[in-house]
Amino acid sequence: MPEEEPPQKPMDEGEDDEQEQEQELEGDQEQPLGEQPQQQPHQENTPEEQSQLPVESPVVPELTAEEMRARRLRTLAARSVVQPVLSPLAPSPEKAPRKQANVSGESRLVREAIPSDKEVINPAPVSAWPELSGKPDMDVEMKSVSSTVVQDVEMRPAAGPKTVLQSSKITSGNQEVPARAPAGSPTKTVDEQYEQLFSRLLDATWNEFGSGSIICAQSASFLEQQPDRRFDFECIVSNVLMEAALKIYNDELNEGEGGDDKEFSSAKKIKSDDTEVQEILANVVATGGGAASSEEAAAVAPGEGAAGQVEATTSEAAAACPTPSVLNIVTTTKHNVMLYLLRCYRNYQDECCQKTAKNQPALQLAFEQVMRMCVLVLTDRIHQNLNGHMDQSTLLELMYMDKVSQSFLVDLVSHTHQDRDAFDAIFGQVLRGLFAGMQRNICTSKINVTQIDWLAHLVIIKVGNVRPIADLVVRQPNFLPPICTKISGREIVKCSFLGPFLSVSLFAEENMKFAEYSSKNKVEDTASSRLRWELHSMRTEMHSVLHSLCVNASSRPKTLEYIGKILRYNDRRVQFASDEKLLARDGFVINLMSVLQQLAVKIKLDRIDPNFHYYPNSLINIEQDTKIRYNDEEYRNFLARDFAQPVQLEKVNFQTQCWFLTLQAHHLGYLPAIQRYRQKVRAIKELQKLIDELDRTKPHWVNSRYASRNNQFKERWEKQMRKLTRSKTCSEITLLDPALLQRCTEFYSTVCEFMLYQFEGRPIEGPFISKMPVQQLKASDAFSALPEWYIDDIAEFILFTMQHANVDIRQGIDHSIITWLLTCVCASHLIKNPYVTAKLVEVMFVFSLKPTNSVNTAMWNHELAQNALVSALMRFYVDVETTGQSTEFYDKFTIRYHISHLFKSMWENPIHRQAVICESRVGNQFVKFVNMLMNDTTFLLDECLENLKRIHQTQQLLSDKANLSKMTTEQQQSRLTQLATDERQCRSYLTLARETVDLFHYLTSDIKEPFMRAELVDRLSSMLNFNLKQLAGPKCNDLKVKNPAKYGWEPRSLLAQIFDIYLHLDCDRFAEALAADERSFDVQICNEAASRINRLSLRSAVEVERFKALTQRAHEIYITNQQTEDECADAPDEFKDPLMDTLMSDPVVLPSGTVMDRAIITRHLLNSCTDPFNRQHLTEDMLVPNIELKQRIEAWRREQSGKRNQS
Hints:
By secondary structure, this protein is mainly α. A three-stranded antiparallel sheet has the order 6-5-7. A two-stranded antiparallel ribbon has the order 1-2. A hairpin with a 2-residue loop joins strand 1 and strand 2 (about 175-180). Helix 12 (about 330-355) packs antiparallel against helix 13, helix 17 (about 450-460) runs parallel beside helix 21 (about 525-550) and helix 31 (about 790-805) packs parallel to helix 33.
């Protein structure tokens, strides 16, 4: 017997206090379980059904939870059909019933419940997406229940037609499981198991057999009317999900329903199920849905299946449901709906982990329906949101809260990527939210990469052979935005989609919040390491993003085009004094460079097209760059001849494009940042000098009229220095990152391999092995057209790292870099710009510094260093005399200082020492080298000694208080300024002079013959005599200064070295040269120098005696020469050299017809290969001996000698 229905309230009282509704429920529970109403018609029960009927029992004082749930479901279902009969058809004027805007007039379940003699055939799974894509703007909403009066019945397993999931047999492995258990069996049928499985998955209950927490009254009402549809799971699951979603949307879940994920619940009063049913039924009455229900249900063909039902429901919902007002939308309910669906998805995953084969069809159905409902919710097809394009993505907010798993995103992308509209609507909003969120997180005191992490998680999702999110990213309107301003470099960074993600920076100029934070909290080594690790993690995530965009074939071209345009629009970053505000900042380009480094790390050089950068439509722009050998006209002719036709970028492999883009990114990213860092360091030093100078001279101006001005200057400079120091500290975190430096070194190693093949002009064939002597290398057209910075950048990077980095990068210097370095130096004739070669020499100088390490050992043991380096360094030492720049005179001293140090290091190695000795015996190169060495030594010693004299005078003046007091303040300030200038120059010149004298000292110890050549020996002896006179002459006290170590002034060491050079060159020819120096040679000064050497024990007594003997021989020759010169004064003019006015010994004829002495013109050619009279080009092989004149001069000499002997 069915239960007795409790009295119903009229419709207009359906919204009264919740307490009355609870009393009704209590009334239901008080009835005995076995008591049935008398109006239930008699039904014959099958044995199976009888076995499932409850047995009458005495009055039970308490009901179990299952019994209470079943009783409540039956009550709600019965009321949902009885209520329209008892309620008035029209609301009373005093209290109109509430009308749900999101619920249409009738239930799809009732509409589909049409008696049919045909069985429902198992339809093939039909995707709901074609229907949704056809009606993208249509709201899909839950239909209410029909108003047909149906008596309350006991829910039993239906014996009706087969369901979607039902077939004659469901196999599990090799066993066949019958679709239904035999009558009387205690085991549950497969359909019953599916029913409970769906209840667990959806956390919903629609009959007494369910276990979910959400009560679905409408579904229960329908099943009370149509018990044969109990196992039509596709229809049931779809409507249960819709009903649960609507309850959550309307915030109508009772306490305890929906689990614990309701994080966005509002303060709205929770409705009971009774109130919900009353509102649904009132909506049915108001729209007249009761009369139309049966007609519409009859219109649905039984065999249409789920797809047709969904489509019909969608279209009718759009027509019947009034559009909800935007103001009534509670945004947080959408989050709760998604949380519920995500919980369903987690339940699905938990069930899948059990790997029960017979549950797979049911799980697949549940999965598809959950995914379908997620799409409906996320695309606002249930609740229309007119401002959805302006709102934050609900899915993204749940992702931020870690409520969304990666597997859910993968399944959602897989389920939606074929429907472009739905896919773009869901994930386009997510991408826009990530873009906006990343823009807010660029300038923060801490690195925040939440958006980057989620973007990386999205783009790696792969469906088949495509990555849908990667395609969606490049389809974004702002992925490669059109340029609208003149500052294209800055604009593309600020406006492009990936711009904010690559703009995370710790540079003070780009992130003021971090700069302020670092100034308040001192950044120590531990904090720097942590920040560098966070930057590395961010770049790794961005590498994952760009890797996904590049590995996806459809998104790769646009991604490479984007990177190429960024670099092209910012090519002015390397220009001197470029405006940083108009271009991409250092942080952005370095991040891009680091990402490209990781993309290029596995690229094989033999896969690269070495001529890619020459094509006019390539992604690389080198047209405006200075070339290694070609000028602009030569370069244009080269391109017009060999690369006039554009290349098809589709045919260029990814390795080529990526490698050249990475190289360009290093040029535009790290190198300009290095230059700015060095500018900051220099500015800090200059400001510190100014402040120190003010502090040092404070006693002189503190009481003067300049006191206020100087204090203001000091305050301003200190403020500037604090700002620069903060900026320098922030820059060091990024620029001196050991991991970044190591990756740069590894990439530059591949560039060195590339350049080595270009030197020899042959295709790349794996690791480089030289096949041609370096002396025979000739510049090919392709090599001559290469940008100069391909070489210069590597040298600049190594120098910066060795100078400023706290870590030693020598471990990353491999054989390729060393071979490239030695090849460039030994083949310096292939490089037009001498300053590029000079920078490479400086790199060798840095490598050669002690202590001994793996790099300098590998360098000195290299085959090129042992065979060709000595000759190349000597040649470059001479060539650098003229560089074509206005500062060439001073530049050459720094360059030659590095070369001198290299020679000193080589001299300590027996193999290289022998190479130097052999070079001195071959050709004229060593003579030219020694000539330049003497020029430098003469100039440097003369300059530093003059500076020491001025320093001595100023110090004497400042120590005399009487004379100082007579000077005005301006005079005193001028003296102090001049003193500082002299001290700075003296330190510089003495450093260079010491290295040059050292080079002379150890060269002359084993090499003597070249120094005795006529064009060298006279100048060499003059230089030694002059400096010995300065150090030991009567005015040597003028070189005494206070604190000589401050300037590196060591007079004893210099005197001892000059003394040794005299002994190294001791021979008759050298004695003659000493005597020929009439200006500086003085035997008394030589004896005084020997006495000082002996007194200070700088050398042994034997060496002192040898020195005295040499100078005494020179003195005797000097006396003889004085007599001879008196006689030669009367020589004819044609016998005298026109340049020096001395008697010629070996006259030669110049191309201009002028006759000169060979020794004099040869000495001139060592410095300049020009005719001294007309500046025309002149070399030594162009000189023609004048034999006839030479014989006449010799005859005249003999005649004069005979006259002298007769007298």
